[in-house]
């Protein structure tokens, strides 16, 4: 699988024919809703981020103003001293819908495709999955590795500075014996930030999942479940984290910068990410799906544009572990 270069916005224009869209049985709205559903079903990033403003976007260049709830001061009560009333003043953040990805393909007979729902379902599944690969790789990198996560490094921990989560120059070693301990360290740094215990997540790579399968978690009694994770294949919850497994976490070869996705040559370090759902906001929309008659052949051109944006709204709610290998 080809890697997606982090930080690069793919072009959304191209040498497409601009003739009047085909007016047969093709239904762009149906395709848009189907592709949106497929993307959100498969995307890990869409699951770990909040999507509170999902319905407010229509195209690339949109801007959403987000009001942050201000902190309310808790004061000591002294009888007879009167009350000091605070005037809460919310601050605002802007979520820019500034990223775009597109797909474009040709079918020889659109009417035939429409008459075979399984073929349309196949195209929708694949487009949704490929969009997930592109968007997840990009968002993972920018939200965690590119300076956003507040909890990271060899002295993580707001109060204790006692947690070594690894650095680019000195990543931590993950083994069957140490993987579980390192995940609980990530829980510890979030505890020191007073992050809520519900809706926490951790994203691990397949190798770390294999390490966990060889740890005590593989035994049913440690999971409080009648079937061990080795038997049912589910990692489930670990120390208040919902565990996700992804092959799209940022990786890096020796002496090279991080890249999104699994293609990093001979990678020497990779990221493991944890956080709370409130820390990131995300909005994505299949903004347009069109069909056009192919001017150079008998058939139809199908193209679609997905626009999205994301923003870290609470960096204290994110933790980054840099692991070797």
Characterization of this structure:
The protein is α+β, with helices and mostly antiparallel strands and 325 residues long. It is 26% helix and 25% strand. It contains eight helices and eleven strands. It has helices at 28-42, 45-48, 110-114, 117-145, 179-192, 206-213, 220-223, 229-232; strands spanning 63-68, 91-96, 99-107, 200-204, 237-238, 241-245, 251-253, 267-276, 280-293, 300-312, 318-324. The strands form three sheets. Strands 4, 5, 6, 7, 8 and 11 form a six-stranded mixed beta sheet that branches. A hairpin with a 6-residue loop joins strand 9 (280-293) and strand 10 (300-312). Helix 1 crosses helix 4. 35% of the residues are buried.
Tell me the layout of helices and strands.
Layout: H1 28-42, H2 45-48, E1 63-68, E2 91-96, E3 99-107, H3 110-114, H4 117-145, H5 179-192, E4 200-204, H6 206-213, H7 220-223, H8 229-232, E5 237-238, E6 241-245, E7 251-253, E8 267-276, E9 280-293, E10 300-312, E11 318-324
Parallel strand pairs: 4-6
Antiparallel strand pairs: 1-2, 3-10, 4-8, 5-6, 7-8, 8-11, 9-10
Range of strand content: 15-25%
Task: Output the radius of gyration.
Answer: 23 Å
The helix content is: 25-40%
The number of distinct helices, counting runs of at least 4 residues, comes to 8
Total domain count: 2
Structural class: alpha+beta
- Mean pLDDT across all amino acids: 76
Chain oligomer state? single chain
- What is the 3D shape? globular
Number of strands: 11
Our measurement of the CA-to-CA distance between the termini, rounded to an integer number of angstroms, reads 19 Å
Poorly predicted spans: 1-24, 220-224, 226-233
The SSE order reads HHEEEHHHEHHHEEEEEEE
């Amino acid at each position: 699988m080809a890697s997606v270069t982090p930080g690069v916005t793919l072009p959304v224009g191209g040498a497409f024919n601009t003739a009047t869209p085909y007016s047969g049985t093709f239904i762009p709205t149906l395709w848009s809703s189907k592709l949106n559903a497929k993307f959100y079903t498969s995307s890990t990033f869409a699951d770990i981020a909040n999507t509170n403003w999902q319905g407010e976007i229509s195209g690339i260049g949109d801007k959403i103003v987000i009001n942050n709830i201000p902190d309310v001061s808790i004061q000591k009560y002294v009888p007879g001293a009167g009350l000091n009333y605070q005037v809460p003043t919310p601050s605002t953040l802007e979520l820019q819908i500034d990223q775009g990805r597109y797909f474009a393909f040709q079918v020889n007979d659109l009417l035939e495709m429409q008459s075979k729902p399984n073929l349309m379902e196949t195209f929708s599944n694949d487009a949704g999955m490929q969009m997930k690969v592109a968007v997840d790789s990009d968002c993972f990198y920018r939200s965690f590795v590119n300076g956003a996560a507040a909890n990271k490094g060899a002295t993580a921990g707001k109060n204790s500075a006692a947690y070594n989560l690894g650095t680019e120059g000195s990543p931590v070693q993950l083994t069957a014996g140490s993987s579980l301990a390192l995940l609980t360290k990530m829980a510890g740094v979030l505890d020191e930030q007073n992050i809520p215990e519900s809706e926490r997540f951790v994203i691990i790579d397949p190798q770390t999942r294999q390490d966990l399968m060889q740890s005590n978690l593989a035994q049913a009694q440690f999971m409080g479940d009648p079937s061990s994770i080795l038997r049912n294949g589910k990692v489930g919850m670990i120390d208040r984290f919902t565990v996700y497994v992804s092959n799209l976490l940022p990786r890096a070869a020796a002496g090279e910068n991080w890249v999104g996705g699994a293609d990093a040559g001979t990678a020497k370090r990779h990221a493991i990410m944890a956080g709370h759902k409130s820390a990131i906001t995300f909005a994505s929309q299949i903004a347009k799906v069109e069909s056009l008659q192919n001017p150079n052949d008998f058939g139809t051109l199908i193209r679609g544009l997905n626009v999205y944006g994301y923003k870290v709204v609470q960096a204290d709610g994110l933790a980054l572990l840099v692991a070797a290998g």
